[in-house]
Amino acid sequence: MNSLIAFLFSNLVIFLIFATIAAFDGGNETDYQALLKFKSIIRNEEALSSWNTSFHLCDWSGVICGKRHRRVTALLLKSQGLEGSLSPHVGNLSFLHLISLTNNSLQGTIPHELGRLSRLRFLYLGSNKFNGVIPTNMSHCSNLEDLRLNNNNLVGSIPKGIGFLSKLTYFLFEYNKLTGGIPPGLGNLTSIELFNAATNPLGGNIPHTLGHWKSLTTLYLGLCSLSGTIPHSIFNLSLLTELSFRDNQLTGSLPSALDEMLPHLRYFQLQDNQLTGSLPPSISNCSKLEFLEVRGNGFNGKLRIDFSKLKDIYQINIDDNTYGFGEADDMKFIDTLRNCSRLKRLDLRNCRFKGVLPTSIGNLSDNLSFFIIQENEFYGNLPSSIGNLFGLTGLGLSRNRFTGKSPPPLLILSGPIPDAIGNLSLFITLTISSNRLEGHIPSSLGNCHRLLELRLYENKLSGGIPRQLLQLSSLTIALDFSQNNLSGSLPTEVGQLKMLTYLDMPNNNLSGEIPSSLGGCTSLSFLYLKGNLFQGTIPSSLTSMRGVSTLDLSHNNLSGQIPGFLERFILLEYLDLSFNDFEGQVPMLGVFANASAFSILGNSKLCGGLAELGLPKCNETWKHKRRFPLFIIVIMIASTLFTTICFVYVWCKKSNGQPSCNDVNFQNNFFHF
């Protein structure tokens, strides 16, 4: 009896083992077929070369299986250069917990079969080329915690069913083309910590239900075409560290107790909206704040933020608002920035600040890279203390160029450019234009060996152009000294600016000849020398400047012929040689074939050219002017040759008794020769 029981029990165990194996084999076969279908519509299969019968599917590249049941639990194929589309058969991988296909070139629609993956927790499809809509049945993936669909071409609206994914913690779909607003039902995502919908034309308002996201730390809704006010409930999300509503049409004002409502705020971005009121002084107590950008709104009232408590802040963009009252303490907040040792960028442009630029700007952080205070109403000298900002790479001190009929008056900087500015050896760009700066251009700027761009236009600077400045091979973008009182010649060192694109020196008092070394500036696209006192001819060395598109030499005292090499400048779109003293025939090829592309007005000695120019025809004397000297040279050579032969012949006669040069046979033979 016992042996019978043992026999039956052993058979039962064997049966169960084989049944289990059969079940597992069947499951493996399902996964196997699904993966082959996945591979079959991938155009480049290099990353999937191991997906063949030589290996068990659990050993295929990017495939992860469970240890117990050996079913596929994860596909890890990030950045594998995959092209093609995503097979709907992936929906048969019923044990999948994770799909990572980020940063490939997959296209087509996201298959709705993914909605069958009830065990799916992580779905990463970002940075591909998927189009179509987000499948509505994604709501069936009830265990989904992390959904990333960013950087694709998805259209349509956010499925309302997403609001039922109670475990969803991260939802990223920025940089798509979704419309239809933010569904209020998303407020049910009470576990959400990060929500990024930036750069989608969603439209509509911000639902107040988003205030239910008590676990939220990061909210990005920039460039979403949102309107209306920011719901007060948003400012009750006390765990928020990053908040961005940039580039929308939001209105209203900010709550006064911002520090108490958002005590952990590190990143605060509201730029380019229609917000009004004052910037709450309570921002001073947001001690963790690192990034503040509120530019391009209607904020007004005196700026009363005490930045001394914001020791971690590295960027402040509060420009394009109205803070200035014309009072002595408008810029008092500058003094509070001295403790902000991490500050790298400070943008205060167009804020209506008035008064003398405080010397305390020299106390700003050594880490400050960009300091922009242009388009305000400062006056007086540029403080020499600016030379203490050794970390500066960019400085903007220009004033606004108004285009209206009655611009408001602006008080502007005057006095010299301090020599100490040459201490800022890390400069990349320097703009101090449209002021009343006077005196010389400091030669100390020659110490700025990283300078790419220098613009000092519309000032009252005088003296010569420092040679040291023209030896900066780093200058590649622009050198603009237009509309000053600079004098003297253009130094020959200008030819060392071989990579410069834009050279602008019109309306000064520069004189002498255009240096032939200028031809060394082979990268120039724009050359403006109009309104000076240059004389002589256009140097033939300029023939090497074949990339120039705009050339303006008008209103000088240049003379001679228009060089023929200008006809061969195939990129030249506009040429102005007007009001000089050029003579001779006007070319007719290249830029000269289009009367609207060049100007030669005010040159009374020119002739020929296009009929539209109305110039007189070039007479025969002018046409043969170049041949005449060559004719004279031929006569001189023949005469010299004849005289030499006669001399030799006479010498030979005296020596050997041969006939003289008057001998008729000799002359006939000579002229025949």
Overview of this protein structure:
The protein is of the alpha/beta class. Among the domains are: 2-154, Ribonuclease Inhibitor (Leucine-rich repeat, LRR (right-handed beta-alpha superhelix)); 464-625, Ribonuclease Inhibitor (Leucine-rich repeat, LRR (right-handed beta-alpha superhelix), Alpha-Beta Horseshoe), CATH 3.80.10.10; 627-672, no CATH class. It contains five helices and 41 strands. The strands form five sheets. It has a 23-stranded mixed β-sheet, with no helix packed on it. The chain is globular, with a radius of gyration of 39 Å. The termini are far apart. The chain crosses the membrane at residues 628-652. InterPro entries: Leu-rich_rpt (IPR001611), Leu-rich_rpt_typical-subtyp (IPR003591), LRR-RLK (IPR052592), LRR_dom_sf (IPR032675), LRR_N_plant-typ (IPR013210). This is non-specific serine/threonine protein kinase.
